[in-house]
Amino acid sequence: MKRWILIGMVVASGMTIQAQNKLPEKFPYQDTSLTAEERADDLLKRLTLEEKASLMMNGSPAIPRLSIKAYGWWNEALHGLARTGLATVFPQAIGMGASFDDSLLYEVFTAVSDEARAKSRRLDSKGNLTRYQALTVWTPNVNIFRDPRWGRGQETYGEDPYLTSRLGVAVVNGLQGPDTARYNKLHACAKHYAVHSGPEWNRHSFNAENISPRDLWETYLPAFKTLVQEAKVKEVMCAYNRFEGEPCCGSNRLLTQILRDEWGFDGVVVSDCGAVSDFWQKRKHETHPDAASASADAVLNGTDVECGNSYKSLPDAVKAGLITENQIDISVKRLLKARFELGEMDENVWTGISSDVVDSPKHRQLALQMARETMTLLQNNNNILPLSKQAKIALIGPNANDSVMQWGNYNGLPSHTITLLEGMQRYLPTSNLIYEPVCGHTDSTLFISLFNKCSTSEGNGFHSTYWNNNTFTGEAVTEVQQSTPFLFNTNGAAPFAPGVILRGFSAEYRSVFHPEKTEDVVFRIQMRGAYELYINGKLVKEDEGAVKQMTSIYTLKAESGKSYDILLKYRHFDKTANLSFDMGVNAQIDVKGLLERIKDVDVVIFAGGISPALEGEEMPVDAAGFRGGDRTEIELPAVQRRVVEALKTAGKRIVFVNFSGAAIALEPESLNCEAILQAWYPGQAGGQAVAEVLFGDYNPAGKLPLTFYRNLAQIPDFEDYNMTGRTYRYMKETPLFPFGHGLSYTTFKYGKLKMNDDKIAAGQNLNLVIPVTNTGSRDGDEVVQVYLKKMDDTEGPVKTLRAFKRVRIPAGKTVEVKFSLDDTQLEWWDEQSNTMRVCPGNYTVMIGGTSCEKSLLSRAFTIR
Question: Does the model's pTM come out above 0.85?
Answer without folding.
Answer: yes
